[in-house]
Amino acid sequence: MQAVIFDLDDTLYPERQYVLGGYAAVASAFADRLGDPRCTLDHLCRLFNTEHRPRVFNRLLLESGLPEDAELVVRMIATYRGHRPTLTLHADAEAVLARLERRVPLGLVTDGPAAVQAAKIEALGLTPRFAQIVLTDTLGPEGVKPSARAFELIAQRLDVEHRACVHVGDNLAKDFLAPNRLGWVTVRVLRPEGVHWGKPAPPGGEPQHTVASLEELPQLLPGLPWSGGTRGLRRP
Question: Which domain holds residue 180?
Answer without folding.
Answer: 3-13+87-220
